[in-house]
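Write out this protein's structure.
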Amino acid sequence: MKIKLPKILDIPPKLLPILFNLNNFSLFLAEGGRGSGKTHSIGRIILYIAERRKVIVCVGRVIKDSVKDSVLALFKNLITEYNLDFDVSDKRIIHRKTGSVIFFKGFREQEIVNVKGLEGVDILWIDEAETVTERALDVIVPTIRKENSIIIFTMNRYVKNDAVYQYCVSRRNCLHIHINYYENPYCPQKLIDEAEECKRKNLAKYNHIWLGNPKEQGQNHLVSSAKIEQALTLKYNNESHPNHSIMAVDLAASGGDLTVAKRLVQVAYSVWEDVETITWTEKDTDITKGKIMNLYAKWKPNCLIGDADGLGYSIMCSLKNSLENVIAFRGAMAAKRISDMSGNARCDGYLCVADMLDEGFLKLNCQQTARQLEYMKLNWNPKTGKIYIWSKDEIRKEHNESPDYSDTLMMGIYGINYYPQYFVNPVNNKNSQAYQMNTDFELYD
């Protein structure tokens, strides 16, 4: 039997299950390419609900101003087109009869600690959710705890290991729909023509923009997503091997950063595993030093390598006086690679990570680390002829997070490769320079 829906619910049939299952799921993920009608459809569903019963709706993107420029404009156009009974301002939309309220919020990671007003929300809709980090999810999701409340994500996934995508598809209480422009009967012909032209000129671009597939990695990416996936599922032989481990720490440098500590363990003669990751947000140097010393005592690593740039310098100096086998890492210091292709130690370390991933010598368990490795890029400097890894500022600008997890892994791998004096049998990696380096190192070499 066909159901006649009001005109405001003229949305792609593939997205109607969201409307019909509002009481059956608490999470909804609508993802796909441009022209699929995701954002337009969720906006229509929310206005339809708000006209019939009182609901509190929060609509968010990572940057709040972009919500006003896009989703607020969508709501205004729909309210005008269908003559709906709402009062509209730049801050909120209120229904005159039901009392429903729609308000807007930014979810930038650096500001995510401020979740005031979300406890009473019935519907949280986060658009362009591909820019939401796992840390932000960990704060947002538990806050939406009102009975029968729901969270809706709309997105075009940028990387394979996207935080929101991985979170949603692993849960049975999530309704997941992938939709593209050719499944949207309301897609304008102009967009269809644009999609077909893109398909003709650049298939990789078409697959991401119009089909909603993760963006294909170009030549400047550090490592392919296939290699990262291989590392996440890597199986290794239970062979006799030295019981070595290294502890790495990336110290928080700004408001959005985490302090990340990792323990890497040698699990086979040639394989190291990223077995444990601990994070904290406190910026107090005494607290950070205390946590590091406690983890060092618990993990008993062969050595500790840590970030000695900026605020980390004083902490690493203090740790050197308290602990044995401490290596201070500075990303801008000279590279150790004999090939001399790396512009600095940070790039050198990431190339060591890429080597171990290529050889199948690194087992990953941390999804946050895998995600950050996937979008890591290299730049070539034509003046010096050397390559550099993207800076933290460049990564924050494009991905709304600092690469704290991947930087910590990188330092651990750097220590394994270049400080063999702490390991009786360093990793047997044909790309490793460990056997070729002088082992007499200064702390700040």
